[in-house]
Please model this.
Amino acid sequence: MSDVKFFGLTNKHNLPLSKAAIAGDFFFSFGDGERFDPKNPKPAMRRLFQRLGRLLRRHDLDFTDVAKTTVLLSPLGAFRDYSAVYAEFFRKPYPCRTTIPVACDTPFVEIDVIAYKKGLSENRRLAAKKSRAASGSGR
Model:
């Protein structure tokens, strides 16, 4: 049995992916993206970060727990707007960040994160055990 726990295995496009995984005290997100209007990209970029925040909160995390981000961005000309929105959600000290420009006809941004929280795996195990006990299905 793997020590990696996967979450969000079902999706509307029936793709073979998980939305998140926890391995020990590390959290890994899938690459979530958003298309944007190149003349006004910030609203769509904010929606993406709001979804990411909800995903983190579902796993008892927040943006301060994020250690690394990987970003795909098209066009690269949107980098300044993207960085401004990024700074609305992340605070100093900022996570390590890799931004990869993508040649694409459709303007979009996609991000995935790696987060760390000491005790994350143990806290989830204890919460699951408490939930099972409360429902009468304790193991």
User: Anything to note?
Assistant: The two ends are 17 Å apart (CA to CA). DSSP finds three helices and seven strands in the chain. Helices lie at 42-58, 79-89, 120-135.
